[in-house]
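User: Okay, second chain of the day. Same drill as before: sequence in, structure tokens out.
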Amino acid sequence: MRRKAPMRRPTLVAAGVVLAVGACAPGPEEGLGGLSPRDSVGVAISDNESADAPFAGGAVHMADLMTPDSALTALPWGVAADPTAERVYVADVTGARVAVFDGAGAFVEAVGRAGEGPGEFRGVSALTLGPGGTLVALDARRGVLSRWSRDGEFAGEERLPASYWGPGFAVGEGAAAEWFATVGSTTADMSMDQTLAVHTPRGAEPVHVVRRELSLMELPCVSMPAPKVFAPDAVWASRGDTLWFVNGDGFRIDGYARGEVFASVRRAAAPAIPVTRAMAMASLSFGPGPYGGLMRQCGVTAAEVVDATGYEEVLSPIVGFTLDPTGGLWVSRRVCGLIPEVIDVMGPGGGYLGTLDIPAIPVGFVSPLRLVAVRPVPETGEIRVSLYEIGTDAAAAGGSGARDGRGPAAGSPPARIGSVLRGGSRQSSSAAAAAPPRRPPEPNPAGLREFSDCDLCPVMVELPAGGFVMGRAEGEDRRLGLDREPRRPEFSRERERPRVQIEFGHRFAIGKYEVTFDEWDRCVAAGGCDYRPEDRGWGRGDRPVIHVSWLDAEMYLAWLAEETGRPYRLPSSAEWEYAARAGTTTARWWGDEVGSGHAVCEECGLEWEVGSTAPTGSLPPNPWGLHDMLGNVSELAADCWTATYDEVPTNGSPVREASHHWSEGRCLRPTWRGGAFYHFRWTVRSAWRSGGSILATAEARHAHPQVGGGTGFRVALTFDAPTPDPAR
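Assistant: Same drill. Structure tokens below.
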């Protein structure tokens, strides 16, 4: 049923990747005036049945955009093109800046700087162009929209008008956004909805919903509801006052404006792609998607995950798209694989004009004949922003030519391309090569003593003496809706109970940050650690060390103790929770709701979620000055696993011999605390804990070096010996 709206709304497109163009768009009737057949509710339909044909003139690859420091990390929803000013804006995901390029691809300037104040970024999550060519940058970690003139001058900022889940966003008229559009996610019963909606002061108006059906996934390490492999995503882009979105499994893009769907562009020659079991397994073997993280954490294979979840029978051919200055659609399409292979060009009237052999996702036009696209580089796994000249003799120029019917060569997808298709964050190889400098000291918000025993020793925070009540509070399940969370396994509900009154009989300090690659690599260089874990291409430096076992952590701690003469160790589970709560009694130190910008986890509103870890200290600390206690990586505790808190000592000591998993002086199933970057939001709570047999031994780590990609640790230090206390 057609819906009328009292105001003009933006043009959005939902298909899996959000792509913002930002040039002023013609009205719906002007932009697609050639659409004459209409359905029963008046939607203009363009059916295209012609087979693939070359697009006239072809295209030439002109340039790749790069900053002078060769450290630009780009994602599709972080690129905006202004054809009026002939400028391309690229959000540098890891650099807290927006890089500006001219129409030829030359670097012009960097906009913004790192910081917490007006005109500063903690991280640029996405970009779009507002009316009149104003650049609008979304900083999810600060929770603001900042506006910049075409001359690069800061023009003001406002709080986000709605929660940002993304990827991507669009804004409407006015100094403060009259409307704000993005995609949100909700879970109910055994389904998950991704909803493209327009938010105004009067409320949110849903535009398009993509539903994922969930089934119970049972693996040796976890049992929970999960979507099938290749479950559909909401992929969208915006231009002017119209929204366009991919609708269904085939080649169908619907247009929405003024509160109604007004047009539908379809192409029968590009049907949904049949999915095989081999394709489903291949999709899990690369990229940072949620199942990739689960495989690494639990030590299971792609085949086991596919068998546990199943897979969709078909896959949409559309990867992403944008609109050109005349209102035509440029659609990135899969032909037979998992990644972008070609671009179909649809005219302003919705008719098919031809296909280009450009394996990239179009994101805008910097001039009428110059396309801006985001493309993967198979050799390095990087994501590059590229310029293509359209309407030239590509064959003569030696560039990427028009499609000749043969199609791209078949082969395996590149090793890290999942960061494009699933929205992960990836650091460029040049940026990852240089370790960041030692971070400057910051004052402790509670005035607690901080110290470091050597140049690259962990920074420690001495915690207040006292005690707390350990475990999930009464009513927390109901208050947070955890009792209705379908992804929360029933057997996990007793892990945080019964509550235990802890009174520490000792003074201790805990690491201000998770142990970093810098700190671990120093142990390796000194000969104290015999293992150099992989960083998965995200960079080392201040990122938390990963792929480490419980015994690896003990090896590092033994070296640190020898270097400093101090008894460094893992924190007990009670010490860890005491530090994580930092005197608070809510589910998280910042409150009950997960909100946005507080932790690195699934749907937590940050550019790293699901895709990678974040550099330690990227987010604000808790009230005691401790960073990343929730999210980023799951942290090993000194406790051996118990199903409940019945065995927890009341003096805060770790559970060892009382655990059924303690054998011959070592723990075969350690405890993890805090959740990880790919974990569900409900796990990111002070009370949550888990455990597993993976990485419990050096043998297990050597046999499975890729396991534990979300597991790290932080250190603790005892000042006084704890008073003996029997296990409960």
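Residues 1-35, 392-438, 721-728 have pLDDT under 50 and may be disordered.

User: Thanks, on to the next one.
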